[in-house]
Amino acid sequence: MTDPYKVLREHFEELITLTDAEFEYISSHFQLKKLRKHSIVIHPGEISRYEYFVVKGLLKTFMADDSGKEHIWQFAMENWWVSDYHSFHTQEPSSFTVQCLEDVELLCMSSADRNKLCAEMHKFEHFSRLKITSGFLSMQKRVMALLQNDAQSRYKQLLEQYPSLFQRVPKALIAAYIGVSRETLSRLQI
To answer: Which of 33, 136, 168, 177 is the most buried (most CB within 10 A)?
Structure first.
């Protein structure tokens, strides 16, 4: 069984070097949460009070339109961070649902603890800035792909970027992520 805090430390140390004392202090601001498949982590209308580091499992962030159709904003797998970041930073109600697609282990940190660590530790603030920038660039790339690329190109890009996702996610969710119907997705796979 993998130690979730060891996974977190390895994740931090991809970008920064921490002493044992520094990591112990940072990790004391996280809580381990284990949830079952289909559990809802964030409900629309709730305030997102936590940012989640995915130790194990897979989640989706989505909005449902008035007809109930899901529009998937993000998948989050191991070593990814997930939240409704607008709600997390502004403390306004969430627009998204974050749901477990598999059993998950998450390390969660409150907005207050995140802000405290950023104010107290330059290394943590530096790590956070790099991760936020990386996330912003990924989302910018995703939005540009939705605006500029056809469905076939979006499908190929997702397949090239995250091939393991196709083994873990039902085709209907892949279709919702790239913005096509399940039938269109079947034609793209030929």
So the answer is: 177
The per-residue pLDDT for range 15-68, each reduced to its tens digit, is 999 999 999 999 999 999 999 999 999 999 999 999 999 999 999 999 988 898
Which pLDDT score, from 0 to 100, does residue 95 have?
93
Within-domain flag for 177: no
Q: Is the pLDDT of residue 72 over 60?
A: yes
Whether residue 156 is contained in a domain is answered as no
What DSSP designation does 47 have?
A: B
CATH code, domain carrying 117? 2.60.120.10
Taking the C-alpha atoms of residue 145 and residue 190, their distance in angstroms, rounded to an integer, is 21
The answer to whether 63 and 96 have CB atoms below 8 angstroms apart is yes
CA torsion 15→75→35→124, rounded to 10°?
A: 20
Q: Which of 155, 139, 143 is nearest to 187 (CA)?
A: 155
Q: Is residue 67 part of a domain?
A: yes
In angstroms, what is the C-alpha Rg of the chain?
A: 17
44 located within any domain: yes
In single-letter form, the type of residue at position 32 comes to L
What is the number of structural domains in the chain?
A: 1
Looking up tokens 């330059």 gives 122
What is the average pLDDT value for the chain, to the nearest integer? 92
